[in-house]
Design a protein that fits this description.
The protein has about 475 residues and is of the alpha/beta class. It is built from 15 helices and 22 strands. A seven-stranded mixed sheet has the order 12-15-16-11-10-18-19, sandwiched between helices. It has a six-stranded mixed sheet with strand order 7-6-5-8-9-21, sandwiched between helices.
Length: about 475
């Protein structure tokens, strides 16, 4: 589709147009929905081995095109090449994992003869495609999160309509093109560019069976409302906490928190935001973190040596600067950063902000880490749980009792031990509780959401015995 309105994407670092996407019109949406429904049977009939082979070829294709994709991420989002290359490696892994999971889709023979009315009968289940999937992806990891949704949907035998973020149209489109080049049938995927109005119409459409959304809490609530009684998976925001206990290796913890707190300019739902440090080691950690942050290279995302590029736009960077200043006005110490140049936010450390500061209570989603002292381990767990979010947490300790206690008590979907909150393996279930969403991502768990259980009941035919 080439006619109609177009939206230009202004590179946040380069300050000029880097990509252009055609905005979907209402008739485009209608056409796409009709096509997705009609094509569902064609994709569902593909053998799991065929789907898996395509996904494996796609993984190899993505790996070969890694520099191209990383360059697009740098242009459209200001993401440093090293972060972009890391995301592309994860895309390839995600596609490979989805391929392996496609080969494992099956069912089970149910033990019906264990109850009297079941004697003499047999029941078998299988996982069947749920129907057309709508994948709405975010700007902060547009390639890998698209890979998660699209690969799992295709592995399950579904057609997919992709609504990518307006900030990353080119990298989203190129990834879909690479999947098609690897053999994904044209019936399996469509991509519609646009804003929230396009997403809302797609969510409400009766042709869509499943909605998978990653993004902010407000938008997630709107998606759930528009989708109505459909199956909906939401991966929403976070306010990730990392706890550093007195037995931790403080220099190592500070080094890791610096590396993972400012990657992608902190624009990750599990980025290190709140670090609670046992009071006796608080100043040591704050000094070590500040020194590590000072060593980060900030600047051109197309320079392979850059650690921190730009945020998604000027408004996002200005909001983080404003929140940093607010915390300072409430008594916190800004040990480094607190300024911006255009969309480039200087990596910022805010030491000892009050509990009610926005950098503590709200999702910063930017290049800022708040460091706070604590005295009692049980109390700091309670403090972490006061957040309305519950996605992931980190814990630095060698005390097994604390590890088990934190795993049991923290209201989060995942806990990383001797690592920060900002770590994810793409073949491990990922998702949150409370305002952080519904459901779990990663191919195996997404395939469960993208399929339905169908039962075959054979009356008078038994494999269990008649008496």
């Amino acid at each position: 589709m080439t006619s109609g309105d177009h939206a230009d994407r202004m590179g946040p670092y380069l300050r000029h147009v880097v990509s252009r996407a055609r905005t979907a019109r209402p008739d485009d949406i209608t056409t796409a929905l009709t096509y997705a429904r009609r094509a569902a049977g064609r994709v569902a009939r593909l053998a799991p081995a065929t789907r898996a082979d395509i996904l494996e070829r796609a993984a190899a294709t993505v790996t070969a095109q890694g520099d191209r994709l990383a360059g697009l991420l740098a242009l459209e989002l200001g993401k440093p090449l090293k972060d972009g290359r890391g995301e592309v490696l994860r895309v390839a892994d995600t596609l490979s994992v989805a391929a392996a999971e496609a080969r494992m889709i099956g069912g089970e023979v149910l033990p019906v003869a264990g109850w009297g009315r079941g004697v003499g009968n047999t029941a078998i289940t299988r996982r069947a495609p749920a129907g057309p999937v709508l994948a709405i992806t975010p700007f902060n990891a547009p390639a890998n999160l698209l890979a998660h949704k699209l690969a799992a949907s295709f592995a399950a035998g579904n057609t997919t309509i992709v609504k990518p973020p307006p900030q990353a149209p080119a990298v989203s489109t190129v990834l879909v093109e690479l999947l098609l080049e690897a053999g994904m049938p044209v019936e399996a995927v469509q991509i519609l560019h646009g804003g929230g109005d396009v997403g809302a119409r797609l969510c409400a459409a009766p042709e869509i069976a499943v909605v998978s959304f990653t993004g902010g809490v407000t938008a997630g609530h709107a998606v759930a409302h528009a989708a109505g009684p459909k199956r909906v998976m939401l991966e929403l925001g976070g306010n990730a906490a990392t706890i550093v206990c007195e037995d931790a290796d403080v220099p190592a913890a500070a080094r890791l928190c610096a590396r993972t707190g400012y990657s992608n300019s902190g624009q990750s739902c599990i980025s290190v935001q709140r670090v609670y440090v046992q009071r006796g080691r608080f100043e040591e950690f704050a000094d070590a973190l500040t020194a590590e942050v000072k060593a980060l290279v900030v600047g051109d995302p197309l320079d392979p040596g850059t650690d921190v590029g730009s945020m998604v736009d000027d408004d996002a960077a200005e909001r983080v600067v404003r929140w940093s200043a607010e915390a300072a006005g409430q008594g916190a110490r800004v040990t480094i950063g607190g300024t911006r140049e255009g969309a480039v936010m200087a990596p910022t450390v805010v030491a000892a902000p009050p509990a009610e500061a926005r950098v503590v209570r709200e999702e910063v989603f930017g290049a800022l880490v708040a460091v706070l002292p604590y005295d009692d381990f049980g109390e700091v767990l309670d403090e972490c749980n006061r957040s309305p979010y519950g996605l992931q947490a980190g814990l630095f300790t060698h005390d097994v009792r604390r590890i088990v206690t934190a795993w049991r008590e923290l209201e989060v979907g995942g806990l990383v031990v001797n690592g920060s909150s900002n770590f994810r393996l793409d073949h491990v279930p990922f998702g949150g509780v409370k305002d952080s969403g519904i459901g779990r991502e990663s191919p195996r768990w997404m395939i469960e959401d993208f399929t339905v259980t169908k039962t075959l009941l054979l009356k008078g035919l038994t494999i269990w015995g008649d008496e």
